[in-house]
Specification:
binds zinc ion; single chain; OB fold (Dihydrolipoamide Acetyltransferase, E2P); 5-stranded mixed β-barrel; alpha+beta
């Protein structure tokens, strides 16, 4: 079957001297991997090798049940090449691509997620954007879209109110990935897999929730690193494998919770 879809390049693998296998995200067909014959030739229909983050109009032929399809034509509309000038923006963009590849099954259409990454890449392209904050919001929204959002107002074990709890604000609160939310200090001893949440990280999660409901929020550096680390931890626990670029999105100093 022949398709025409907007598409974002998630991943490329060299297939031969002149050809690539390219993984695209499309709104209507989800992730597709296609053989791009001759794409690395300068005069190919794709106009040379297809790059990660490249967006455009894709025409392709899909094969039945999981077999590799064929790229017919890719007309690039946005390259995002400007991101390559800034190491932290490039890592943020690559991490977004990795997250989508890791959390979506092939051929599972998810138009909301397509819009999310399209908007996330566009935001990174803006000169004044904070790449760590863009990444944090992207992770938060991605979790929502794939049904793994985090509960931060109540203890996911005993339902105690944490939004107004003094102990939570004082740092006595934990996170459990399998239950998908915060654990109060009374429930914490009985929970094996957990991470302690600092007041800064908790404030950052509050800010993401506020941003999601349309309020203007600020995500200072000391909050955004812990939030990125926590959200990436949750995703890795849920997919059961490491995200290779996760260590780049917590900022200098690496591990924060
Ligand atoms: Zn509890």
């Amino acid at each position: 079957m022949r398709y025409r879809e907007p598409a974002i390049c998630l991943r490329t693998v060299d297939y031969s001297e002149t050809s690539q296998v390219v993984h695209f995200l499309t709104p209507g067909a989800g992730i597709v991997h296609l053989l791009a014959k001759g794409s690395k030739r300068p005069k190919s229909k794709a106009g040379g090798a297809i790059d990660l983050t490249s967006e455009g109009e894709l025409v392709f032929i899909s094969k039945a049940s999981g077999a590799m399809g064929t790229l017919v034509e890719f007309s690039e509309t946005v390259s995002h090449l400007g991101l390559r000038k800034y190491r932290e923006k490039l890592f943020a963009a690559m991490f977004m691509l990795e997250l989508v590849s890791a959390t979506l099954l092939e051929g599972d259409p998810h138009p909301d997620l397509f819009a999310l990454i399209h908007n996330g890449l566009a935001r990174l392209d803006e000169g004044d954007s904070n790449s760590l904050a863009v990444t944090a919001y992207f992770q938060w929204r991605l979790l929502r879209h794939v049904g793994l959002s985090i509960r931060i107002d109540r203890c996911v074990s005993c339902n105690a109110d944490l939004a107004s709890s003094q102990s939570a604000r004082a740092g006595e609160v934990y996170f459990n990935s399998s239950l998908g939310g915060l654990i109060c200090r009374d429930c914490e001893p009985a929970v094996v897999e957990k991470k302690r949440i600092t007041p800064e990280t908790l404030a950052g999660l509050d800010a993401l929730l506020a941003a999601e409901s349309g309020r203007r929020t600020n995500l200072p550096d000391n909050q955004v690193r812990g939030v990125n680390h926590l959200l990436a931890y949750h995703i890795q626990q849920q997919i059961g494998k490491p995200l290779h670029l996760a260590r780049h999105i917590t900022g200098p100093g690496g591990q924060h919770t």
